[in-house]
Structures are given as structure tokens and as C-alpha cells.
Amino acid sequence: MSETPYIGMDCHDGHSQVAVMASDGTILDERRVTDSALAEFAGSPVASMATGFYRHVYETLDEHMDVTLVNPKKTRVIAEASVKTDNIDAQMLAHLLRANLLAESYVPPREICEQRDLVRTRKTLVETLTVRSYSESTYILPNEGRFHPE
Question: Whole domain around residue 19: which residue ranges?
Fold first, then answer.
């Protein structure tokens, strides 16, 4: 019976750098994979950074794996590293996962995420409408209420 490996994953848009580590700390595999190839690691514990686009990767992984989303600012060994590469970050995540030393990030339930998306969308629409309204008023107000584009 083979042991379950620990996986550190440094995610990017469309691909991830993966480090697969045994329980004794030896690196079993390191490679760059596309998001569609992540299913091969099903059933393994995975540590991934909470980046700006974590949600797609997290939701994909969470269906098949035990995912730990890591707070990068609280994981000092990665945040303050003098040499930062995708390989090193993935290895460090695997090491910290194996040693149970990760600072986890909170992942809200799907319903909360959807509500936050609605609020973000509304905020963007209001900002866009406000900018457009201000730019149109620069044409209308100086011309006594008549619209005269230059």
C-alpha cells in the first residue's frame, strides 16, 4: 500500500507548478501542469497560495482533494524568501503541509462568494456609470444644457 503524497502547488493563470513530496520529505515529482491535468492528484492533500485568482483552482481541486488555502502574508518563510521561484514556492508549500505548519486562509461558502461577486459587479457598474456621468457633464454644463461634442 503506497502512502499519500503531500502536494505543494504554486498556481498561476492557466497552469501550476507542482511539487509532490513523500512523508519523509523527499521530492517525488516536480513539474508544471495545466489546470485540466490537476485531477491526477485526486485524494492527496494539497497546499496552494491564496492568490488573486485562487477561486477557480480552489473549486476545481476541492472536488477531488483535501485543499489547504494558504495565507501568503502569514506564511513568512515564503513571503520573505530571498530567492522566489515557482519550484521553490511549491516545494516549501509541500514541506509546510507535511509538517502541518501552514497559516490557512478563510474560504467562505459558495453562497457568500456569489453574494460578494454581485456586490463587486454592482460596485464596478456604479463606478463606470459615475465616470461616464462626469465626462458627459463636462460637455453639457458649459454649453448651457445643450450637448455639443467637440
Answer: 6-98
Instruction: Answer yes or no: do 64 and 137 share one domain.
Output: no
pLDDT tens profile 90-114: 999 999 999 998 888 888 888 998 9
Q: Are residues 65 and 125 located together in one domain of the fold? A: no
Among 36, 39, 41, 59, CA closest to 4: 41
Full-model pTM: 0.70
Same-domain pairing of 92 and 25: yes
Split into its structural domains, the chain has a count of 2
Residues 95, 17: Cα–Cα separation, whole Å: 15
